Amino acid sequence: MSTGPLISIELYCRHEELDLTFVQALTDRGLIHVVVQEEQHFLPADQVARLEQLARMHFDLDINLEGLEAISHLLERMDRMQQQVRTMEQRLRLYEP
Amino acid sequence: MAVDYYKVLGLERSAGADAIKSAYRKLARKYHPDLNPNDTEAKRKFQEINEAQEVLSDPDSRRKYDKYGEHWKHADQIEAQEKQRAQQGAGGSGGAFTGDAGFGDGSTMSEEEMNDLFGNLFGGRGRGRREVKYRGPDYRAESQLDLMGARTTHQQTLTVNGKQLRITVPAGVEDGQTIRIPGQGGAGVNGGPPGDLYLTFVVQEHPRFKRVGADLYTTASINLSTAMLGGEVRVETLDGIVKLKAAPGTRTGTRVKLKGKGFPVYKQEGQHGDLYVTYTVELPTTLTPEQRALFEQLARTEPQP
User: What is the pTM of this model?
Assistant: First the structure.
């Protein structure tokens, strides 16, 4: 669930010179979450970093939308695994004197 | 040792603009920080790749690099000195840096290629513009806390790149946890947005408590008679000493859970983990004559194996 203030996607795209269709494509693929209020689309503030990251990967590294989808899944998995490793490290410390 | 930008990008010295662009993208896809979160080695490598690409994709920088190698940044000074010497009739080619000279003459890029390259690689969204906005760099910093400090929500003042920054550290942060503070990284270029600050917490270990998530683990010693007969045990918690009842026949390794006496759960106000207390039965190392007599009496009551 996204939280924080909402940013108009239209304004954000204009400011960042980002193509609206790119944001739409990311939304359609479930890579970012947008909020619709009175037929206006908004980006929750906590999604901005995610959108910036995806835009960097797409425009700077030339990764297409399918690639972004695959990478996002893998990064999420990596994040979960890092969390598991951290928890296991903490548990191992219980057995150290 | 000097870094060879061509080697960094895996290129021949005769590589053209397209080859540089393609090599950069290939390596950037492998080492970009977005694809390698929390990997300092990848970040270092990416910076190297980026630097190589920036130098080699700019015809003027590349020409200087090809001629002066690692000293390319001083090319203007060197050339000015050479010119001065030539005018004074000294002649000769600039001594100190000739060792790195002799690289192949770099290919040049047309203005169109330059625009294309910079527009695509860095500005991304600002295609066709002369002046591209760059987002400022992200900063990374570390904050050291002890376990008791991580227990409460508190204000902390950090100095990041000479700038004082006051932040709120939520109770329950974990060792190794990174939070993002938007807009507190380096300033953007040409009106681009600032980068973000990524702050990683290093929570020191506590001599009495070990932490797994929001749960805490500790040990408590009990003497032999309390272990056998049961009784009261004093146990240290984060809130002070509590008295627990040990059941008769408590063994070393017996664990009891004190619900809600653990660590605050991150960003879930009012919620706490549990405290697990593991008993260690302390055996006496020396006995008084009276204790010895009592143990001998006890031994006679025990069944023989």
Answer: 0.59
